[in-house]
Amino acid sequence: MAGRGRPSRATVYARLDRALQELNGRLGGLPSPTEAQDIWSDIWHLEAHHSTALEGNTLVLREVQALLDQGRAVGSKSLREYNEVKGYGDAAKWVYGQALEPDAWDGRLVSLSELRFIHHTAMTPVWDVAPHPDATDREGPGNFREHDIHPFAEGMTPPSWPLVPGQIQDWIDDVCDLGKKIEAGHELDHPLPEELARIHNVFERIHPFIDGNGRTGRLTLNLILVRLGYPPIIVLKRQREVYLSAMRRADGGDCGSLGELIARAMEDNLNRFIVPNVAGPARLVPLAALADRDFSMAALRQAAQRGRLKAVQGSDGVWRSSRKWVEAYRASKHRPAATRKSSAGPS
């Protein structure tokens, strides 16, 4: 059951579905990197920061930005930490670019060579300065492990290493089958976010590499998402315990919590980065995409309901306005009270 003031899981899924329909139906889908470099740069910085922080990296966001944008190692962190972020940033940049402007993409959501490439790109810089102490020469970046993994503290035991190639091929086939179902409009066995949660969890349970499975799994999930026309996700470092708890529940077959986390992350990136930038000044978008430091979504909705912000409520119950109308409302808020009263005419 949802807590007081917190929407139910079904509501979160329905809200995401409407937002995706709006993005792909009315707003023309995801922008390409060349069309909206700033959007992808912002997501790139945050994803590299938070995804490596989930694994213990201590670089703060401004250090990540300086490293990725200027190649400068700001601060006094270890070379290993800088190289972790550099490798992740390079892999994420490839994920976004390859997904949106593909070179000879064959239509599959992911291939074995792409999975290996993502791991190789993400892990090579850190491996160059701090290789895994137990790795053999055949277990470097891009190569599957040839060690068995001890059971995790939570109880999950990855498969014995000889089983990894076959299980990863089955996983890739499963992901590609899911893509075909979605493209054909077929009904899925479970809500979309929970299908995404399932494939993410299965990858992590296979644990195909000796190191870097969490980073590679999140990067590969984002490749899948963007190729489906959906926004990539960022699991925030403050969500680490929630994320790990959801993964443990998914280990036991319950993908609901992880699906909800993924759905919220997709919607957050939509509203925070993508929709406000792809919508023109006069285009109507949900209020969530227009909220900023001055006006929260609740404040905009209240203004719309009171007729102070020009907005329309659709048949789906969602209030929509435009950047142009919000700017007009902002300007009216900043005018002196006497001016606002006189411009309103006689009472």
From TrEMBL:
InterPro entries: Fido, Fido-like_dom_sf, Fido_containing. Coiled coil: none annotated. Residues 110-267 form the Fido domain. SUPFAM superfamilies: Fic-like (SSF140931). Pfam families: Fic. It comes from the Bacteria. This is Fic family protein. It comes from Nonomuraea roseoviolacea subsp. carminata.
